Amino acid sequence: MGLSGLLLSGCGEKKENSLSELQLSGNVESMRVRTYEAVEKFGEIEKGDLLVNDFHDNAFYEFNEDGMLTSLAFYDNYDDFREKTIFEYDKNLLMSVSNYDAKGNKNHKAVYTYEEGFMKTETVYDEDGVLDSRMVYKNDGRFVISGKRYMPKGDEPDSEIGFEDDEGYGAVDSVCTDDLLMDSAVAEVKEEPASDKKEKKVEKDPDQKEGEKLVYAYENTYQDDGKLVKSVGKNYYNGEVDYTSVTEYVWKGEWISQMKFDKDVVKFVRDDKGFITEIDGGIIAYGESIYPCLGEKYYYKYEFDDHGNWTKRTEYDGDAKQPKRITVRVISYAD
To answer: What is the pTM of this model?
Structure first.
């Protein structure tokens, strides 16, 4: 799986820097994020206990002068430091991502290569420097249009998303009441197969190296302006397609107004700044990513600072609009 989520500001689009990906304005140096349970007392909505379904619910972001994310620290629902990720660049091209635990021990490292400004490979190594996975990307001179993930033979891709409760993390599947979550990266989307029908065994892959096996591949289709409109992902098992997922996107101006996962649709309502105020069939989670919660409806209200960045977001669920979560962002600026 890739390392970046499907961001609310527009999946598939090439962003100027990390700040634009996160819809942050101004010369931001850092941002501290905490998420709380929303409780109602004496007719007022207040912050309750920390609510950490994912690391991004309790995190500290640091950016360089070019607006690129340089470090991302995660905390659990006891507000204890758990791990940190370091990002290294060359002229704003991401060259490596290193993840460390709370004691400073390396968990894994991803190294990137480029071809004519487009990402060509992502190679991930474990804590011992042993190859964990390799991603190969293709471009058409305008956009990255496809990618394939390989793993050493004998290894299986991760099949579960979540954190152990006794380590101080909330259960990830508690975000959606129907327990339907999706992993997404570089416009990849995994979902349950629409059918159990297997496709034919794939032919020899020119990108595959000796001792590797193909575990995932995707192909993207874009509009002329670079907006992603369709992504087809295939998960492989023993050289055969295990299941296929198709995700389609509908745009309204500069923003996604609808995402279709097979036959299931997630719709968005936004304010004049592009921030989502209502989601029908989905939820904002995991570092500002969109995940489907089919059959669910969520509402969002914001408070903003003088730079136009939101500093407080209250989430409501259901037609009754009951308060559920409050996310607070403390943003520091260089000027």
So the answer is: 0.82
